[in-house]
Design brief:
The protein is mainly α and 297 residues long. Helices cover 80% and strands 0% of the residues. It has 13 helices and no strands. The longest helix has 27 residues. It starts with a helix and ends with a helix.
Length: 297
């Protein structure tokens, strides 16, 4: 594992922590609904992403995409498709918990690391290390149990599990897999977000009744921007397989959030979560052994 991989692993874990925080954060934004939260999230995420582009010195990547659009007009269609794939996932993430679809979407996130591993193998010929193979096998056991427990593959789960790999392959194929490309994805979503926010319930009366929204919504944009930037940079630094397997850190964190909110793990869920915890444990062991070897060398 080289320095870029180590940085990628760190950023992936940071992103998972921030996404786990967002899952809980949405409960603080009542009475806003999923669509409204998505809209305001996009509106306030874009300026923070732009600030990140500036601070990271990635402005040249944004300029490069503009220049490519002049030479390659069809790239515009690719950017629209990329934006649509991301927008669907971000909307679904905020919409599901408020519309009794959290279980279906959670199943999608359980399946996603495995579809990412499969994508890396088929599309790029990637190989897994021994510990990563153990993690994959353990995770497969947990996901298989969850699929049987839920009773199939809901459309929401398939949207997550199949949509994200397509999104990342598209970004990699057309060389937009960087923060500048992420900024384009979000900017193209802005008109939809503004329209939803305009038709939403946000007005002086609502803000007077819930003054906390004045600072909670901008903070939502900041957390969202930090999470997305860390997530996208880690994707660029890591192989598809390892990046995918690290996605299991997030369900573990979401389970901890559920515990905080008062939910308890049911007996029939142990065969789902224990193998996934073991999968994350395999990755921790691999990372620890790497650090020990690097210090002793």
């Amino acid at each position: 594992m080289n320095s870029n991989s180590s940085k990628g692993v760190f950023l992936s874990v940071v992103a998972s922590c921030l996404f786990g925080g967002l899952y809980y954060y949405s409960t603080l934004l009542t009475p806003l609904q999923g669509e409204d939260i998505f809209a305001w999230r996009m509106i306030f995420t874009v300026p923070f992403i732009l600030l990140g582009v500036h601070l990271m010195g990635e402005g040249y990547r944004v300029a490069a995409i503009f220049q490519r659009l002049i030479r390659e007009p069809l790239l515009g269609l690719v950017l629209v498709a990329s934006s649509a794939f991301l927008g669907l996932q971000l909307w679904l993430f905020m919409w599901a918990p408020l519309h009794d679809k959290a279980l279906e979407v959670s199943l999608g996130y359980f399946m996603l690391p495995l579809t990412m591993v499969l994508t890396g193998r088929l599309a790029y010929g990637e190989q897994l290390s021994g510990w990563q193979k153990l993690a994959t096998g353990s995770a497969l056991l947990g996901v298989t149990h969850e699929v049987f427990r839920v009773g199939g593959f809901p459309i929401e789960a398939l949207t997550v599990a199949l949509g994200y790999p397509v999104y990342f392959v598209l970004r990699k194929r057309f060389q937009t897999n960087h923060v500048g490309g992420l900024w384009f994805d979000l900017v193209l979503l802005l008109p939809i977000a503004i329209a939803i926010a305009w038709m939403g319930p946000m007005d002086e009366t609502l803000l007077s009744a819930h003054p906390k929204l004045f600072w909670l919504i901008p903070l939502l944009g900041l957390i969202s921007a930090a999470a997305l930037m860390a997530y996208m940079v880690s994707n660029r630094l890591l192989s598809f397989g390892l990046f995918g397997l690290l996605g299991y850190v997030e369900p573990v964190l979401l389970l901890l959030v559920a515990f905080v909110l008062g939910d308890l793990l049911q007996p029939e869920e142990y065969l789902t979560y224990v193998p996934i915890w073991l999968a994350v444990g395999c990755l921790v062991v691999e990372g620890t052994l790497h650090l020990v070897r690097r210090r002793s060398s």
